[in-house]
Structure formats: structure tokens, C-alpha cells
Design brief:
This protein is an alpha/beta fold. It has eleven helices and 13 strands. It has two domains: 3-169 and 300-307, Aldehyde Dehydrogenase, Chain A, domain 1 (3-Layer(aba) Sandwich); 172-292, 3-Layer(aba) Sandwich (Aldehyde Dehydrogenase, Chain A, domain 2), CATH 3.40.309. Strand 3 (107-111), helix 5 and strand 4 form a beta-alpha-beta unit. Helix 3 crosses helix 4 (56-82) and helix 4 (56-82) runs parallel beside helix 5 (119-130). It starts with a helix and ends in a 10-residue tail after the last helix. Pfam families: Aldedh.
Length: 351
């Protein structure tokens, strides 16, 4: 049997059995994930250094601690996130029970990029597990040392019906980035070492809008600079393209930053910084339009991996009250029903 088909079958059977739904099971998976981070912190730091030359400081701040904070937040709030959410009712439904139930989707696939291989693997995993799903993880094949730890060590800490990890091998990434160095003119950097798959931080100037470096996500240490004549032209340049995952506006003028915020759209926005918004679990992280669907961090992760099921429970024996909905129709009954259907804050009941 195809091993992937067998894995999917086992995961679907595990979800159908109901074992992932109880809060106790979800909490146990999150605690296992927390133990994985605590007990393998040094291994992860070494792997991140090998893959991305990340310092221990950067690995702690941008990868490990953010993931730990997400786990702790989910564990503290799991039961409240799982509770049915009561919603306002109109006059016609005052005697009913209306609520949203958070149901797990079932089987979730998480494909992680290479630039934050721990953070962008584990943070969505926290939300998927907290929501009661089974998960297939696909770490980045470019961050090989980190991928190896996630594939070989992480499963020991989690229930085996929960994570399954796949691998896809590719050698093209370094060559793709090196090819982008031919765009515009190198002002800073440009050095590369194929044996180490290393490219120095590079600034490109005189870049044309049509060049490859401006047509795709770079995911590398290359910064192309495009000159514009005014702020309005810069905003127009942004708005002519697909909406970005994140937009960063740097200026000594608050007016400039707020104008960029007001006249553009992106998954996230940062004024005078390019990272710290990711450290807040109270802010959703995700794209819009072509840059992605859904978001995660904190409760947003739980909501992304949950189906919000609309529920209305009506008491039996009240058909006489609601009979104005049925023929024979009359203008009076229509007026009554339309008034009853209006959204309003009302504590009264139909008599």
C-alpha cells in the first residue's frame, strides 16, 4: 500500500474515533509539544545555526520563545476557546438557543517555509492540535538540519495519530537566489559560497519592475530597491500588485506611516519595524488575497483550524406562536415577522 495513503487512512480513522476531540487529549498534545521545545532547545539552536546561520539569540527570540508562548497561551485558554459562543438573537428567536460551536476540521496539512522553520511549523501546529485535529506536517526541505529534528525527534513527544511528517528533496533554492543577484546592480554584498549554500546579505539598486527579483517571493538575504518620486507613487506601486503578506513602512513622519496604512492592504502591517508584530499572540498573522487565507497566533490559530458551526435550537411546542410564517399570508403577518426578524438587543419575549 502507498505509505502516504496508509498514513492518511490511519489519521482519518483516528479522527473519526473521536479521540482527538476531548480537551484532555488536546492539552496532552500541547504539553508534549512544550516538552519537546524545552528538552531539545540546544539541538534546535544548533540546527538553526547550520541551516540559516542563526545566532542563539535570534533562534531564541524569533523561533523558540514565540513557539513556547503560543503553547502556554493555548493551554491557559483551551477550555474557554472550546466553549460554545452565544450570539445575539432577534425577537423571532428569543425563545431559542443560538450559538456557534467550534468543531475541528478533521485532518490538517501544514506545509512550512524555510525562513522560520521552527516558528512557522510549530505555531500553526499549536492551533491545529488545540482545535482537535489530526495533523500532517511537512517541514521545509531546505532547512535540512531542522527538518531532521522535526521528523525524528518531535514524533516521540506526540500521539502518533496526530503528526505525520513528509519530506520533499530539492537542490534548486541556492541557484534560484544566486540567479536573482543578476537583477539590477549589487550595491552591497553579492558574495556567495555554493559549498555552504551561503549568500551574503545583498542590496540591489537600479532594479526594474519587470525583473525576476520583483516577480516572486525572495525568501533570501536579498533586498531590491526601487526608486519612486513620491509617497503617492510608492502607494500606487504597492496597490498595482497582489496584496502582500506583510507591509513595513519606515518614516520619521507619523503622517507618512498612517497614510501608507490607510491607503494599502496587506496581511499585516508594521510601522518602523519589520518583525515585532510576530511576537504578539494577540495579533493575527496571515495573508489576504494571493498572500494567503486564514491567520494564526493565539486564539486566531484555534479559530483557523476550527469550523464555526452555526447552531439554533428551538423548543418544541411553539409552532402556534410561529405560525405567522405560514399561509394564508397577510400584510399584518408580514409586518410582524419582519419586525421580529430585525437584529436588535432585546430581552423581551413573544406572548
Amino acid at each position: 500500500m502507498d505509505p502516504f495513503a496508509d498514513t492518511l487512512r490511519r489519521l482519518r480513522e483516528a479522527f473519526s474515533s473521536g479521540r482527538t476531540r476531548p480537551a484532555e487529549f488536546r492539552a496532552a498534545q500541547l504539553k508534549g509539544l512544550r516538552c519537546f521545545l524545552r528538552e531539545n532547545k540546544q539541538l534546535l539552536q544548533e540546527a538553526l545555526a547550520q541551516d540559516l546561520h542563526k545566532s542563539a539569540f535570534e533562534a531564541e527570540v524569533s523561533e523558540i520563545r514565540i513557539s513556547q508562548n503560543e503553547i502556554d497561551l493555548a493551554l491557559r485558554n483551551l477550555r474557554s476557546w472550546m466553549k460554545d459562543e452565544k450570539v445575539p438573537k432577534n425577537l423571532a428567536t428569543q425563545l431559542d438557543s443560538a450559538f456557534i460551536r467550534k468543531e475541528p476540521f478533521g485532518l490538517v496539512l501544514i506545509i512550512a517555509p524555510w525562513n522560520y522553520p521552527v516558528n512557522l511549523t510549530l505555531v500553526p501546529l499549536v492551533g491545529a492540535l488545540a482545535a482537535g485535529n489530526c495533523v500532517v506536517l511537512k517541514p521545509s526541505e531546505f532547512s535540512r538540519s531542522t527538518e531532521k529534528i522535526l521528523a525524528e525527534v518531535l514524533p516521540r513527544y506526540l500521539d502518533q495519530s496526530s503528526p505525520s511528517l513528509g519530506r520533499i528533496i530539492s537542490e534548486k533554492h541556492f541557484q534560484r537566489l544566486r540567479g536573482l543577484l543578476g537583477c539590477g546592480r549589487v550595491a552591497i554584498g553579492g558574495q556567495s559560497d555554493e559549498s555552504e549554500r551561503y549568500i551574503a546579505p545583498t542590496v540591489l539598486v537600479d532594479v526594474r519592475e519587470t525583473e525576476p527579483v520583483m516577480q516572486e517571493e525572495i525568501f533570501g538575504p536579498i533586498l531590491p530597491i526601487v526608486n519612486v518620486r513620491s509617497l503617492d507613487e510608492a502607494i500606487d506601486f504597492i496597490n498595482r500588485r497582489e496584496k502582500p503578506l506583510a507591509l513595513y513602512a519606515f518614516s520619521n513622519s507619523n503622517r507618512v506611516v498612517k497614510q501608507v496604512l490607510a491607503q494599502t492592504s496587506s496581511g499585516g502591517f508594521c510601522g518602523n519595524d519589520g518583525f515585532m508584530h510576530m511576537t504578539l499572540a494577540s495579533l493575527p498573522f496571515g495573508g489576504v488575497g494571493a498572500s494567503g487565507m486564514g491567520s494564526y497566533h493565539g486564539k486566531f490559530s484555534f479559530d483557523t483550524f476550527s469550523h464555526h458551526r452555526a447552531c439554533l435550537l428551538r423548543r418544541p411546542g411553539l409552532e402556534k406562536i410561529y405560525s405567522i410564517r405560514y399561509p394564508p399570508y397577510s400584510p399584518r403577518n408580514l409586518r410582524l415577522l419582519l419586525v421580529a426578524m430585525e437584529a436588535r438587543s432585546c430581552s423581551c419575549t413573544l406572548l
